[in-house]
């Protein structure tokens, strides 16, 4: 099960993700892990329109992802996208081998603090990123492949 990129982006699949990152990591399958989207065919059709030609898409609940991802074939280069950092922890705790996380977009909303131009976090997000750090998972804020990445713990420390 080669996961070539794991990304947090609350927009899930969109032009920037689909084109830039898929080509950068040679992904041939985008797997969105989201308990709401996995049951919403209309949302899936909209997201499919943003996927590059020749790149497949799958939509799994967290539970489905934990069961199905280990069964992926060796020729599947998986680009894993989630909306929220807490999902990453659940996947890892479920046995999915994630070593690095790319943090793209975490929109601002009430109760969140903006720590970069594209990332806003609340206390639960901060706890989750700290837990990932304790687990040895590298988390890097990087919107596009050509951008210099920034360590998430550095951004969090600067904001505290």
Structure explained in plain terms:
By secondary structure, this protein is an alpha/beta fold. The protein has one domain (3-159): Phosphotransferase system, sorbose subfamily IIB component (Fructose Permease, 3-Layer(aba) Sandwich), CATH 3.40.35. 34% of the residues lie in helices and 24% in strands. It contains six helices and nine strands; from the N terminus they run βαβαβαβαβββαββα. It has helices spanning 15-25, 41-48, 62-68, 85-93, 123-134, 152-159; strands spanning 3-9, 29-33, 56-60, 78-82, 100-105, 113-114, 120-121, 138-141, 150-151. The strands form two sheets. Strands 3-2-4-1-5-8-9 form a seven-stranded mixed β-sheet, with helices on both faces. A two-stranded antiparallel ribbon has the order 6-7. Helix 4 (85-93) runs parallel beside helix 5. The longest helix is centred in the C-terminal third of the chain and has 12 residues, at 123-134. The chain is globular, with a radius of gyration of 15 Å. The model has no long low-confidence stretch (mean pLDDT 94).
